[in-house]
Amino acid sequence: MRHPLAPGIAVLLSSLACQPSSATQVAQPPAAANAPAHADAPAHGDGPAHAGMHHDFSDTSKFSQAFDDPARDAWQRPAEVIEHLHIEPGSTVVDLGAGTGYFAGWLSRAVGPQGKVLALDIEPNMVKFVEQRAQKQGLGNVSARVVAADDPGLAPGSVARVLIVDTWHHIDDRSRYAEKLALALGPQAEIWIVDFTEDSDVGPPARYRVTAEQVVRELQAAGLHAEIVAGEQLPKQYIVRAARR
Predict the structure, then answer these.
(1) 73, 242, 89: which is closest to 174 by C-alpha?
(2) Which CATH number fits domain 16-244: 3.40.47.10, 3.40.50.970, 3.40.50.150, 1.25.40.10?
(3) E-assigned strands of 65-204?
(4) Dihedral sign of CA atoms 144, 148, 151, 155 in order
(5) pLDDT tens for residues 124-141?
């Protein structure tokens, strides 16, 4: 998604989309998949139908420099994120808002040769980038596809994990979107959302940030059981886990 699912994921800090103000800031990871390609969205309120942050992520060469910058590893901690998910070999997982595929290799190894990684994004250029990346890196279990901004396009009960990194704040009408994600969850399946804290020195503008508590409310409004993963926060981000009741 850049914004997920229709996505992307590696997404976001005081990103290129927001013109970082200093050399110490890293561009934010790929935007969520369901974010339309323009950056003039209005500020949102604390409700289920507010608008997400919209931005044009079509310039993959520019965003790859930010999303795939080795310096990102220090605060994104991909190995730690993947460990939290407890992914079973052979399962099907979704990278919603996959962006340039920052998490593709990590997820590919976690599911193993018999598993599947669905890298979803709304930006066609990002999807093409992930396809080329998977081919170059020999990630035969990774497939990328373009999805609609308001629908991940997943079959009912088809996935074991949905990972949404730095993308949730890009999605419009998030509770409704969460309802569609909930339908795609199989037995014991979970949704994991990683996004920026209010005081993080990287990430989207303040008016577009979504607190962990708000994410929980949005997921609960979709009929999911959701909770902040206490004690497992990343340096600049929080983690929220959700599952069907």
Answers:
(1) 242
(2) 3.40.50.150
(3) 92-96, 116-121, 142-146, 159-165, 185-196
(4) negative
(5) 999 999 999 999 999 999
